[in-house]
Amino acid sequence: MKPEVVAGPGPRDAVNHPRHYQGENGIEAIDAIYSALGLHGTVEFCRGNALKYLLQAGKKGPFVEDIKKAAWYLNWIAEHLEQ
Q: Do 37 and 31 meet the contact criterion of CB atoms below 8 Å apart?
């Protein structure tokens, strides 16, 4: 069995910087997605993820954590559209 790779040292932050969303090179998934899809594509990606977390809130993980994850994606959209 292949050992689990956990990128980056430090405490777990399941909402803002989940370790499993960061590659071994330190690039976070959202940054790679932005590079690949541009602003419009990443906004749509974030909208979909926000909806996913709202619909599954409390069913897979803690309710509040899922709500915070949805808010993270919505905040990303707001911050990048205001620039």
A: no
Asked whether residue 6 is domain-assigned, the answer is no
Per this entry, what is the length of the chain?
Answer: 83
Number of domains in the chain: 1
Residue type present at position 28: E
User: Number of C-alpha atoms within 13 angstroms, CB side, residue 25?
Assistant: 4
Does any domain span residue 65?
yes
**Overall average pLDDT of the 60-72 stretch:** 96
> Which run of H or of E encompasses 47?
helix 29-56
Q: What is the pLDDT of residues 27-48, one digit of tens each?
A: 888 999 999 999 999 999 999 9
**H or E element at residue 42:** helix 29-56
* The predicted structure's pLDDT at residue 58: 96
Report yes or no on 10 lying in a domain: no
Q: Domain for residue 76, yes or no? A: yes
